[in-house]
Design goal:
- This protein is an alpha/beta fold and 145 residues long.
- The chain has a domain of 100 residues: Nucleotidyltransferase, domain 5.
- The strands form two sheets. It has a six-stranded mixed β-sheet with strand order 2-8-7-4-5-6, covered by helices on one side. It has a two-stranded parallel ribbon with strand order 1-3.
- A hairpin with a 2-residue loop joins strand 5 and strand 6.
- The radius of gyration is 14 Å and the shape is globular.
- The two termini are 14 Å apart.
- About 11% of the residues have low confidence.
- Pfam families: RVT_3.
């Protein structure tokens, strides 16, 4: 509940701005107001001793799911992949996906030299995102008070 409260507080402190690219980017530490028609999906992973949980947050709802890995990089890549699948299944065409996993964002940005543990997830993510009109994967630095 505290994480949800922090996320809501962060979301409520929206500033004006936008970005337009069909790629991965690095940067923002706060929520940014989007152009009309753009949907932002924020994803994250929590790693446990026997499995991990991933989550995708869209302003109107949050979804959680169990994944069968205890490797943080794989869990984060699965969260990003699931966000892309949710975007397609909900008919979204213009999306921003945010992740706090810089290594995954950089893997998408590079498009090559992807760590072997996430090659399948990143490859599938890229294929799915190519179906969209416009997309951006952004690295978001998490700060905790």
């Amino acid at each position: 509940m505290q994480d949800l409260g922090r996320s809501w507080k962060e979301h409520s402190a929206i500033s004006i701005g936008s970005s337009h690219s069909r790629t991965a980017s690095i940067g923002s530490t706060m929520w940014v107001r989007l152009d009309s028609g753009v949907t932002k999906l924020n994803c994250d992973a929590t790693v446990g001793s026997r499995f991990s949980s991933i989550a995708v947050v869209v302003p109107a709802f949050t979804l959680f799911r169990k994944v069968n890995t205890i490797i943080p990089l794989q869990a984060e890549a699965n969260a990003i992949l699931w966000a892309s699948k949710l975007a397609i299944s909900h008919g979204l065409t213009i999306v921003i996906i945010e992740s706090d996993c810089n290594e995954c964002v950089q893997a998408v940005k590079r498009g090559s030299c992807i760590p072997w543990r996430i090659q399948v997830a990143i490859g599938e993510f890229q294929r799915i995102m190519d179906e969209l009109e416009w997309w951006n994967l952004q690295w978001i630095r998490r700060t905790f008070c």
